[in-house]
């Protein structure tokens, strides 16, 4: 069942954010593919390159955190709704509120502690072992994901409300 999107005055902003998320995830995935191919070729010809494992890991972290946040903008992350739909409507309404609050808390947690990790990496001038780039370039993916996730939850509430609401499901069963 596909739900129509309700356009709001923030829709253009949400579209830009969604495009940014897709570009970051797409570039990360493309980078992983290229680096893994380089790694395979290097091992095949007998000259493995140690930076490829680290590069793959860094790209994967960016891709995974941004994709996690992206899943919330259109309520595409998995949720348990079957059992919730068996309960009375008042409980289903409460579950929708819990969904919003818990997700905001989780992304706030990621933002706060990810920000602490990022600033610690900046203060310590931590560098990658094989790829000599500042680890803060990698660590910033956590606060970025926290912000994108919170914006995604706001978008889901404003523009995909029927997918967030569990209260109407299960009627007549």
From TrEMBL:
Task: Report keywords, A-Z.
Answer: Cell inner membrane, Cell membrane, Membrane, Transmembrane, Transmembrane helix, Transport
This chain's protein is named TRAP transporter, DctQ-like membrane protein
Record keyword Transport present: yes
Enumerate the transmembrane spans. 20-41, 56-73, 94-115, 127-154
Q: How does it sit in the membrane?
A: Multi-pass membrane protein
A Gene Ontology biological process annotation?
C4-dicarboxylate transport
Q: Which residues belong to any copy of the Tripartite ATP-independent periplasmic transporters DctQ component domain? A: 32-159
> What is the source species?
Selenomonas flueggei ATCC 43531
Which Gene Ontology CC terms are recorded?
plasma membrane
Tell me the compartments it is located in: Cell inner membrane
Q: Name one GO molecular function term.
A: transmembrane transporter activity
- The question of whether Magnesium is a record keyword is answered with no
Question: What does the similarity note say?
Answer: Belongs to the TRAP transporter small permease family.
């Amino acid at each position: 069942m596909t739900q129509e999107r309700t356009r709001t005055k923030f829709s253009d902003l949400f579209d830009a954010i969604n495009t940014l998320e897709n570009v970051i995830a797409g570039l990360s995935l493309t980078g992983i593919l290229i680096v893994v191919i380089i790694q395979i070729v290097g091992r095949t010809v007998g000259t493995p390159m140690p930076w490829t494992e680290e590069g793959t890991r860094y790209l994967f972290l960016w891709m995974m955190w941004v994709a996690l946040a992206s899943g919330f903008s259109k309520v595409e992350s998995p949720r348990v709704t079957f059992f919730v739909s068996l309960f009375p409507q008042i409980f289903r309404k409460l579950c929708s509120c819990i969904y919003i609050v818990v997700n905001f808390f989780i992304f706030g947690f990621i933002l706060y502690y990810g920000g602490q990790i990022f600033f610690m990496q900046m203060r310590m001038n931590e560098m990658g072992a094989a790829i000599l780039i500042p680890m803060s370039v990698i660590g910033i993916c956590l606060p970025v994901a926290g912000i994108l996730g919170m914006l995604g939850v706001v978008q889901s509430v404003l523009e995909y409300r029927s997918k967030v609401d569990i209260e109407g499901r299960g009627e007549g069963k």
